[in-house]
Design brief:
alpha/beta; 24% strand; seven-stranded mixed β-sheet; two-stranded antiparallel sheet; single chain; Pyruvate-ferredoxin Oxidoreductase, domain 3; 9 strands
């Protein structure tokens, strides 16, 4: 079973990201479970959600304590993400330009720049959940056409187009900190 925990700030679409990831995974034949964590969230406060994916029915119903993938919507959430626990062999997927100061394999995507480029800006803030979803689907080897179909089902055509473009760019530009950016890009 793969466990993914997503850390973000209230208003960034963390729960929507988890739900869209689960919907995309289900389309590939995987079982999926989303775990939103609700407390006294407010815009800007630290929030989290988790997703479990497996080829067999998922019977675990607990919180995600040691995920194999830690998703950080902002690099300043590293301490919070690590404090909540991760697996020894965990991979970090982060919205950042350069690797974080932690001894873990990292996948980086410039989600804010991608969101701004594709006009995914609401209330003056770049909405980065869809670019992060695109990057995460690439890391998980979920085919982009499945993600595209999920996004088309989520929004009307006018709203889906920029989201699909942003997800595609993130999917094609996410890079492993051990690789040069150009080596990982599919164009």
């Amino acid at each position: 079973m793969r466990e993914i925990r997503i850390h973000g700030r209230g208003g960034q679409g963390v729960v929507t990201l988890a739900e869209l990831l689960a919907k995309s995974a289900i389309k590939t034949g995987l079982e999926a479970q989303t775990l939103p964590f609700f407390g006294v969230e407010r815009r800007g406060a630290a929030v989290k959600a988790a997703v479990r994916l497996d080829h067999t029915p998922i019977k675990v119903r607990s919180q995600s304590y040691k995920p194999g993938i830690l998703v950080l919507m902002s690099e300043n959430l590293l301490e919070i993400g690590l404090a909540d626990g991760i697996a020894d062999e965990a991979v970090i997927v982060v919205n950042a330009e350069k690797p974080l100061p932690v001894d873990k394999r990292q996948w980086l995507v410039e989600a804010e720049k991608i969101a701004v480029k594709h006009n995914l800006v609401f209330g003056g803030e770049p909405f980065i959940n869809v670019p992060m979803l695109g990057a995460l689907c690439r890391v998980l080897d979920l085919p982009f056409p499945v993600l595209e179909e999920t996004l088309q089902e989520q929004w009307s055509e006018d709203k889906a187009k920029p989201n699909i473009a942003a997800a595609r760019e993130a999917y094609n530009t996410v890079w492993s900190a051990g690789q040069a950016k150009e080596e990982n890009s599919n164009g």
